[in-house]
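Retro notes, item 3 of 5
We never archived the inputs for the magnesium ion complex last cycle. Fixing that now. Sequence and ligand:
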Amino acid sequence: MSTSDLDKSIQYIKGVGPKRAQTLGRLGIHTVKDLLYYFPRTYQDRSRVEEISNLTDGTTAMVKGIVLNIKSFRTRGWKTVFEASIGDGTSLLQVKWFNRPYQSEIFQVDDHVFLFGKVTLYKQSLQMVNPEYEIASEEDGPAKSVGILPIYPLTEEMRQISFRKLVQTVVEEHFHKVEEIFTDDIISKHKFVPITNAIKNIHFPDSMDSLEESKRRLKYEEFFLFETAMALRKRGIKEVSGYKFRIGKNVENHIYKLFPFKLTESQQKVISEINEDMCSERPMNRLLQGDVGSGKTAVAVYALLAAVANGFQTAFMAPTEILAEQHYRTLSHLLEKADVEILLLTGGAKTKIKKDNIERIKQGDIGLVIGTHALIDKGVEFEKLGLIVIDEQHKFGVMQRTRLRKKGCKFQPDVLVMTATPIPRSLSLTVFGDLDISTIDELPPGRTPVETYRVPAKKENDAYAFIRKEIEKGRQAFVVYPLVDESEKLELKSATVEAERLRDEVFAGLNVGLLHGQLKPELKELIMSDFINHKYDILVSTIVIEVGIDVPNATVMAIEHAERFGLAQLHQLRGRIGRSAHQSYCLLFGIQKSAESRQRIKTMMDTNDGFKIAEEDLKLRGPGEFFGTRQHGLPEFKIGDIINDYDIIKLARTDAFELVKSNDSKKQILLSRIMERFKGTLDLINTG
Ligand code: ADP
Ligand code: MG
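Structure as it came back at the time:
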């Protein structure tokens, strides 16, 4: 069969020895097929031959002409220079090569040549320095360097020209062996070119149009495979039985009465979506997105209590100890009069208390366990885990979600993940493609939007005076620094040193607390609750307060070295304020060195809309960095662009989900063929 040909080691291709095979291996190219699927990074359009008289300074162009004279000499610095004048009947072009002495031997007067390079103006005449060239065999004969040429992502060991030659050999010999995975109906529905055609044209396009067609086809194929895996994963989750909760009006009213406020319409809408999931026999796998301060905790509390009312255990996982502790405090307070056993489980030493707690969870005594990722530790087992809520999901990976889900016993527990980083729509189809999505799209009433200002160095004292004024009005402030310890190299003010300066000088007479990640958990907890109880006016902190912290009386968020933070972080930090009816202010200190950091600050000043900020952040940093963690579960696409190919992703997703759902026998055959062919890839996506 022809496939085996494509699986042949690249080493046996003519011109590739063991050494070159090794270099190729470092690029991930081991087989003929790998090479066929090693796509260009970009292209140079050399399909147009320009007349020399049309060339302008600074452009890159292709010209064809006759060599009129040549000259080689050495400069005083012993550089060799080879010079030629080229004419094409419209004008003259000077061409120079430095340090390439052999050039004089292959380039003769009267040769017809193609030249490709950057045009510059030198002493009133147009020239090209070190252009790529090719001698045309006949006057008008085709040249290899004419056309749309691929540029590959390569390492230094490998040159474009020789790599291109290798690809050309392999493509010519093997492209027709690439197998079509799609049935005719998909191909005709989307008017795709055949796969063989796409492979050939992605490397050596006949025209810009055919390149676009090939790209569209190959992107679709890549997304299609990914979405098939997503659909299978989703089906896998839904296939198993979950718990069928019963949530009557009684329970509902009882829970509603616990809150000191009326839930917003948006909160009620997502609660009813969650309700429906929980009451169905399929396990819930839902993402709740809502901007910072939109009141996601209340929704979580509803779901948790509804599950507890059904006699189940529940787990509420937060990414930091500080946030877990806050949730513990809030919920303990809300549930003071309710009959629910609640417990906090965080990392740290295996003390006797912790061991006891783990034992009690195992016995099923505890209805509601709040904790950090300590919850997914090996030793932690539940007797009857019915619901998992994961707060600030973007701080966790897919793996952790899966691991927590496995703590269920007989059935799959329901899973609700929450995030304040709204998921840009393309990511909601990919990274989060196995989840159903609910959105809270309004803030609780009575909030005034936070005002955001940039504080240049000479205005710092004014800003500090402003903070003091807010405190005199009875409000509180956060001051956030990027680092904990003094770092000479980075010359950043560190939180510890600065806290002392702020306490003793800038804010002398006020109460200043200091919080950072390296403090003991008990101490962190104490400082945080002291701040909440207004024992401090100002809390100097590191990024540890980034997510979730809720202190409505705080109205100032001052961020030092704001240029050091990403957009999502800045928005999260700003989300710590503006949580009451008081006007709040976000002050961004620091200098903006790069264009990117300027753009971030500008975005922050322009909008409070987390959704816009997330889209902008994704654009600025790219999907890989977007979540700021390696465990984001982000797929790596070879040709598909997760940001810009939204339309193609959507098509591929619709088709893939339809395929996985379908009972049609022809489609089933296609699915099993895809599953067989791409088993490795699909498995990888599924565990990722
Ligand atoms: P986030 O979505 O960022 O997690 P929280 O759940 O921390 O937001 O809620 C932010 C603040 O808004 C909290 O102080 C909470 O008590 C309050 N809140 C939540 N829902 C409402 C509501 N419907 N009406 C008034 N205040 C609310
Ligand atoms: Mg929250």
